[in-house]
Amino acid sequence: MWSTFFVTDEEGRTVGPASPGGGAAPGGAPQGAGAMSSLMTGRSTFGGNKRRRTTSTGHSLSEAQEGKIKLAFFVAIVGVVLTVLGMGTEFWVELSPPKGFYNNQTCLTAHYGLWKGCTKTLWVSDIDPERASCGPAELHGESNCTYFKFFTTGENAVMFQKTTRKNLNVAAAMLALLSLFLMVMGAICITMALSKEIVFFLKPASVCFILSGVLVLATLMVFHQSVLAFLASDHTVPLHHELSWSVTCIGCAAGVLIVGGVLFLLLALPYSPWRRCLPQKDSSS
Length: 285
Known about the structure:
This protein is α+β, with helices and mostly antiparallel strands. The protein has six helices and nine strands; from the N terminus they run ββααββββββααβαα. The chain has helices at 31-40, 63-88, 166-196, 202-232, 245-268, 273-277; strands spanning 5-8, 14-18, 93-96, 106-112, 116-123, 142-147, 158-159, 162-163, 240-243. The strands form three sheets. It has a five-stranded antiparallel beta sheet with strand order 6-5-4-3-9. The protein has a two-stranded antiparallel ribbon with strand order 1-2. α3 (166-196) runs antiparallel to α4 (202-232). The radius of gyration is 32 Å and the shape is elongated. The termini are far apart.
């Protein structure tokens, strides 16, 4: 009794029945030869060249698309690094009284960020003679840094007889943490898009990075309001205040994150916006 089996390709379609011993199917080439040809050309379900995974829309990521996604991801990573650098440092604002407010030899300056504040004693002789206030904080001196207690015990910090507004400071810190969480979620989405070759993950990634950039800007605004409230709490000691380099890092990070999110959104579109806006002219015209 003769038994019949079927030969299928890698997509599960039946090529045709194969007769025992590699015989030929009616009206076709020998099945053994067809199967061997399929194996040699990599068209079987095993062996041969591996096919690229396809996306949910049935299209695999080309090398050009993958390169553009990696470039946009690099831009977003730069924004993340700048954000972490700015949030981890305490040079958001510098506070400095007049040079001769305490004595003629030393003066006191302070600087703080989201998490802790520092006071530093400087020698007046090291300060620029044309500068009226003490500082800058980068000069060599005796420094004392402490973390703010309003994150643990709820106590306000007091510097130069002025009191911080813990509600504004805590709100700025929470916005910063939420922006970091969105950055992590966006990075996970891009990793999934590159590993699984699914373009759909670019859309939530773009939303995460754009929102994180907006939250970073909101953190700057809330922090600035907390500084103004701190200065208005007491007018006994005249203080000169200026935003420092950590704020510059945060501002640049917000812009870079928003740009990275917009790039992911453009890459997620089913068509090229440049070709829609700037159609190519025919060679005849």
